[in-house]
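The protein record now logged underneath.
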Amino acid sequence: MNKHLFTGILVFLVAGFLHGQEIDIMRFDNIVKSLKLDKTRIKGEFCTEKKMPNAEDSYIAVLPILQGKEEEDFFVVRNYIVITDGNGAIKNQYFDPVEVTSDAIMLRSITIDTGLYTISNGIRAFGIKVSVQNGSQPNPYSSETISLYYPAGKTLKKVLNAFELNTYSGEWDTRCTGESDDNHSVIMMDKTQTSMFTDLKIKTISVNRKTQEVNGDCKENETSKTSYHILKFKNGKYQ
């Protein structure tokens, strides 16, 4: 088990150091000026930007804004999500009301996903992924969620809120004996629709690992199962 545990921990630590996609400083400055933001309230290490593959001269940027007082090992942010042109002029803006808290379970990265989320005729959404992780070796935990948005007028419509894509949790004696659960989900566009929006088919692979010491050797037992479920568009959001 220790090999798998350390691998899971390492992946999220690396993601934490990388943080996210680099943001262009000129566009960043113009966004800050347009939104009249206080730079001291922006968590700069988590700012991220990515070019939109399906729109000419368009860039998605995320600026996490501190809410309240930042303390040692604790802060809360809300994400300002904007679409700009190459100069940083804002085309769409959305201040996500959902707060992201970093405490014992630490915020590690915010990234932009521009996958083929064609959720309706002429509508392609993009995702914002948030990864968190604790610092416990005997009880490791990590999670990655995704929220989906699409441009509408001068704002963005949020159609999926913090859906859990990946989770990892375990409990072990830091030598051999213990158990872990590892869940990985992918979002696929289904062939059916609800309220003119494509249903989202979720495929989840769940792996359970148990290890124990037997005659001086660390023996592992692994079981895996695959499950599917559908998210339908109801009352303005996927659920």
Observations:
- The first helix runs from residue 2 to 18.
